[in-house]
Specification:
It is globular and about 35 Å long. The model has no long low-confidence stretch (mean pLDDT 82). It is mainly α.
């Protein structure tokens, strides 16, 4: 289960250049490459967990390899 960081932890993890490291994002369950809205979705999952609700499972950014159609 990925770690759900608080909004403060997300901002504190920024690099000097203002981005995030891939390893950190992977620890949070964020897929690479980043998709628009990833940070807002991560914060929404954290807020849901704080309220005692089950956070929604993040959607994979690509389908599983066995479902790709190359034909």
């Amino acid at each position: 289960m990925p770690v759900l960081p608080s909004p403060e932890e997300i901002n504190a993890a920024r690099t000097e250049k203002g981005g995030w490291r891939r390893a950190q994002l992977a620890e949070w369950g964020v897929s690479w490459p980043l998709v628009p809205g990833w940070k807002e979705a991560l914060i929404a999952r954290w807020e849901a967990a704080q309220q005692g609700n089950e956070p929604p499972t993040p959607r994979p950014s690509t389908p599983p390899p066995d479902t790709l159609d190359f034909g």
